Amino acid sequence: MGDLLKDRVAVVTGSGAGLGRAEALGMAAQGAKVVVNDIGAAVDGSGFSKGPADQVVEEIRNMGGKAVANYSSVAELEGAESMINQAVDTFGRLDILVNNAGFTRDRMIYNVSQDEWESIIRVDLFGTFYTTRAACKIMKQQRYGRIINTSSHAGLGNMGQAAYSAAKEGVTGLSRTVGRDMARYG
Q1: What residues contact 50, with CB distance under 8 A and at least 6 apart?
Q2: Is pLDDT at 154 greater than 70 in this prediction?
Q3: Of residues 71, 110, 144, 164, which has the active-site annotation?
Q4: Is 71 a catalytic residue?
Q5: What is the mean pLDDT of residues 107-131?
Q6: Integer distance in angstroms from the first to the last C-alpha of the chain?
Q7: How far is CA 64 from the centre of its chain?
Q8: Helix pair 18-29, 51-62: axis angle to 10 deg
């Protein structure tokens, strides 16, 4: 294991599979203690399972790292705050937040239901806002922190992904503004 992130604490949302899993494992491999957040949903956002988060935690522990699972939804304010609080309660601080949780349901705009639109925006954009706001309160006090937000080229426009594109372009704008707001605090 490396020590680039030794004694750092990270929360990685959507880290039960794919990019989030790779980010959590990579940070742990560099010495970070990781809160592995995932609700275990399918690619389209449906369902729930503790299995994906638990599996990543087990992989991290098997390589000698420290990790805990969190099954809260970023789409709910309380869930987002709980994972940030869990990092501080378990490991004593929060240094890194990686907002990776998200999903899409491909539909042409005239076929997107209100529920589909709202659920995608709630997870992909609101979830990023909720976790970022909670993390910034801690990072401001510490005068240190790093936030990595996952966006997508879909924000520039992608056929059949109006809600996903809108959310990801929103994440880009949010990231730019939070970077400017928080720079003075390290």
Answers
A1: 40, 69, 71
A2: no
A3: 164
A4: no
A5: 96
A6: 27
A7: 23
A8: 20
